């Protein structure tokens, strides 16, 4: 290769001193961006929803290229389990032995061949061309050979041949055909109250919903923006929350209300669980609210606006300094500057017990309720995570009940429907206390039908079009 061919510049015009170098546009920027995100997710546990927007912005990828990069990234992550089953049948050795840098290329190619409207020759040739540039000529030949085998059948035909029999192993069948780890399928079925012997029909609808691209939902921060303001910028009112609007397409960061910090991206169920906490009647004072696990700040922004309109104040605590910074930006210029953000471990709180009127515990969890938006979480989490998370969740709920004053109310929230993280935590904590009572949470969300489970609230993507948020409301006696 000559020095000229290695140069990242090309001459397109001349100046007084000769050719003026112009930056060379990367070849196939959409696929390269998608590969870089997928490789980072696999190699260093990056988050696609955080990394992809940064790469698109830094590389100036917009329009159709940005849409292609987004579909390649999220589509590949959502269907990764199904594609791995196909790829495993197409390599001469175990898929586990394939080089880590090559695997994202194979998955991307499989997604184009099996789930996108990309002509077969284009799906193979563009992936092989990218492979030459990122992993070298030798390994690109391997990519070419495997993808040509993949292209021999359609996705339905592959899954029909590879998935376990639905009658004898319904959990395994759904795991392969809908691309979820087996343990996740089992946990979701239990949360829905279904048994494998019954066929798992609703579980299958939920898994299918996880593989659909969700619309972007926005929060109009109380006192700073309205749904009408968002409608003026092309959004439509959401189904339930009076502060929510849905953006049918486009980049939410391009909206003026979002750039000004008056609105933000937030799932509708996340808004509703915070709203329900604010609606529970309390006797006496109602001006001291606490958000114990506030990062990255979506619910804190809503609560700060609501308490500010009542003349009160929110204390938002976050244990990680970087996430506390996100919270500070989210609540900036809330009504009456009603929020204060502190870096604190809420299991060892710096505040006194028995002083808050309302307390929110949005507990760290497996995130199984947001698999539409964070598809990589299904491959990153394992059942072992529960052994660390559940004790932490119980400790946080205990401290929340300690922080609430008599007559105050606590909202326990997880973005997971897993029974161990939801009902198991709440019933376990309440069994050891005589100073708290479980309220009927659904009574405080009358606009949302069908979310009541016993005295809890459970949202579902396939029923409500939201993340699978869980809510319990508890009164301090």
TrEMBL record:
Positions with a binding annotation for S-adenosyl-L-methionine: 293-299, 318, 345, 362
Occurrences of domain SAM-dependent MTase RsmB/NOP-type (ranges): 192-477
Assigned keywords, A-Z: Methyltransferase, RNA-binding, S-adenosyl-L-methionine, Transferase
Positions of region (Disordered): 1-29
Domain of life: Bacteria
Claim: Magnesium is one of the keywords in the record: no
Methyltransferase is among the record's keywords: yes
Record Pfam families: Methyltr_RsmB-F, NusB
Active site (catalytic residues): 415 (nucleophile)
PANTHER family to which the protein is assigned, alphabetical: NOP2 YEAST -RELATED NOL1/NOP2/FMU SUN DOMAIN-CONTAINING, RIBOSOMAL RNA SMALL SUBUNIT METHYLTRANSFERASE B-RELATED
Family statement drawn from the similarity comment of this UniProt entry: Belongs to the class I-like SAM-binding methyltransferase superfamily. RsmB/NOP family.
Protein name per Swiss-Prot or TrEMBL: rRNA cytosine-C5-methyltransferase
Source organism of the structure: Thermobifida alba (Thermomonospora alba)
Lineage: Bacteria, Bacillati, Actinomycetota, Actinomycetes, Streptosporangiales
């Amino acid at each position: 290769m000559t020095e000229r061919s290695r140069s990242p510049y090309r001459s397109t015009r001349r100046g007084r001193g000769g050719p003026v170098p112009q930056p060379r546009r990367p070849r196939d920027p959409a696929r390269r961006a998608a590969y870089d995100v997928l490789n980072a997710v696999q190699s260093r546990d990056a988050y696609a929803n955080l990394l992809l927007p940064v790469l698109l912005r830094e590389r100036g990828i917009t329009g159709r290229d940005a849409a292609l990069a987004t579909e390649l990234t999220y589509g590949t992550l959502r269907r990764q389990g199904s594609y791995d089953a196909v790829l495993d049948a197409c390599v001469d050795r175990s898929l586990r032995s394939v080089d880590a840098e090559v695997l994202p290329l194979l998955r991307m190619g499989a997604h184009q061949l099996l789930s996108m409207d990309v002509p077969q020759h284009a799906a193979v040739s563009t992936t092989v061309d990218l492979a030459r540039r990122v992993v070298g000529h030798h390994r690109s030949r391997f990519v070419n050979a495997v993808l040509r085998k993949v292209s021999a059948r359609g996705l339905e035909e592959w899954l029909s041949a590879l998935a376990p029999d639905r009658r004898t192993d319904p959990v395994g069948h759904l795991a392969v055909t809908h691309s979820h780890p087996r343990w996740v399928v089992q946990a979701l079925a239990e949360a829905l109250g279904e048994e494998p012997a019954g066929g798992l029909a609703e579980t299958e609808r939920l898994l299918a919903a996880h593989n659909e691209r969700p619309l972007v939902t926005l929060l109009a921060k109380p006192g700073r923006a309205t749904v009408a303001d968002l409608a003026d910028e092309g959004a439509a009112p959401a189904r339930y929350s009076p502060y929510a609007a849905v953006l049918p397409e486009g980049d939410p960061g391009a909206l003026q209300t979002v750039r000004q910090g008056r609105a933000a991206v937030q799932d509708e169920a996340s808004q509703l669980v915070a709203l329900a906490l604010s609606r529970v009647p309390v006797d006496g004072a109602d001006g001291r609210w606490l958000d114990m696990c506030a990062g990255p700040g979506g619910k804190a922004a809503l609560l700060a606006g609501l308490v500010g309109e009542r003349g009160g104040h929110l204390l938002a605590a976050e244990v990680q300094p970087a996430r506390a910074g996100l919270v500070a930006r989210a609540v900036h210029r809330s009504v009456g500057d009603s929020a204060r953000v502190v870096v604190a471990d809420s299991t060892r709180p710096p505040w006194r017990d028995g002083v808050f009127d309302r307390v929110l515990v949005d507990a760290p969890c497996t995130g199984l309720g947001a698999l539409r938006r964070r598809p990589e979480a299904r491959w990153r989490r394992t059942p072992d995570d529960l052994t660390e998370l559940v004790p932490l969740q119980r400790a946080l709920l205990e401290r929340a009940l300690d922080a609430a004053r008599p007559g105050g109310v606590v909202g326990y929230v997880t973005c997971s429907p897993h029974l161990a993280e939801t009902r198991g935590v709440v019933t376990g904590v309440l069994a050891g206390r005589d100073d708290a009572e479980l309220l009927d949470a659904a009574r405080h969300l009358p606009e949302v039908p069908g979310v009541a489970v016993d005295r809890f609230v459970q949202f579902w993507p396939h029923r409500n079009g939201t993340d699978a948020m869980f809510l319990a409301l508890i009164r301090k006696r």
